[in-house]
Amino acid sequence: MSRQEIERRYAAVRDAMDEHGVDAVVVCGSEYTGFEGAVTYLSGFVIVHRYAYVLLPREGDPSIVFPAEARYVGEHGAAWIDDQVFAERPGEWLAGRLAGKRVGVYGLDYVLTVRDFAVLGDKADLVPFDLEFDLARAVKSDEELESVRDSVRINTEGFHAFAAEYAPGKSAAEVLAPAEELFVAAGCGRLTMNIVLVGAEFAIARSETVLGDFCIPSLEIAGPGGHWVEVSRALGTPNADVGRMLEAYEEYFEAAKSALRPGATAHDAHRAVSKGFTDRGYHLGHVTGHSIGMTMIEHPKIGEGIDTELREKMVFSMHPHVIAENGHDCLYMQDTWLVTADGGEPLAGLPMKIY
After folding, report:
1. b/e burial code for range 78-97 (CB count within 10 A of at least 16 → b)
2. Are residue 169 and residue 274 in the same domain, yes or no?
3. What angle (nearest 5°) sits at the alpha carbon of residue 167, between those of residues 181 and 250?
4. Do 188 and 336 share a domain, yes or no?
5. Which residue segment(s) compose the domain that 182 sits in?
6. What burial class does residue 34 get, using C-beta atoms within 10 Å of its C-beta: 0-12 exposed, 13-18 middle, 19+ buried?
7. CATH number of the CATH domain containing 87
8. Per residue in 250-304, pLDDT tens?
9. Phi and psi at residue 106, to the nearest 5°
10. Model pTM score
């Protein structure tokens, strides 16, 4: 990671501090919740176990704080923050630094541990900062986009490995295994979340799950640079209702190329890409799309009433989850899109079709 990129990230978060009137930001990450990417984004530290916090003050150097038992359960040498603190009670250490201040917390609702909240919340004025932090990191740098494209390449190769192994009657586990082997060998480590849809529901790819004539994989990985992406296509023989869903998917794919443009709102993009589904009377069972980065799901989402303006170099995962009236037949195919000056660019280069 270049020093220029590190300072760019800090400057963007500090601009958000100024805009929202907070004195410091605490970014929480935990291996237990799937939100560890925010800590990596601000520190370079990769959480292998336990949890950590990054303290970024409005002025001065940042700190990264670990519970004392985490001294040997993470890649400390990868962190670019010099001030690495190991505290018996991280909340007490943070409270000593932040008493009387207004502090934005990324992860206040889902990640900050109860024991640390109890003491820190008693000393400082804590305010949620998830949306503000995510918007500060939503526009990717050229350096980040190299990592994004590398993740897309790996994910796409994994899809082809899945497709090559798929056949009706095989278990989900044996079909996914070659893709997972490829992902780990390419440097993803444990940053993979690869599942299948059984009917309209997401399911772990277990050996007892037998795949039929139609298969919907959901493939999501982060490559060595730590940027998550999502790329997949359905496989096999769809029934007539799913065939109609594919027509709407083809319309979404074309609409997104113009809808994901600078100056449009996330609401506008949602309406444009979902039109083919709603016109056919289908329900969407999952968010149409969302910003994606070093945390899998970030703000803004592509959805109804979201007035966030899209900007060039934002990256979105798009995956309309369309469900038939019977609640079982569905279609769910993923792409990672880049907002460019000329509109949306699907990064995987896969045709929109059922393989």
Report:
1. ebebeebbebebbbebbbeb
2. yes
3. 90
4. yes
5. 142-346
6. middle
7. 3.40.350.10
8. 999 999 999 999 999 999 999 999 999 999 999 888 789 999 999 999 999 999 9
9. -85, 120
10. 0.94
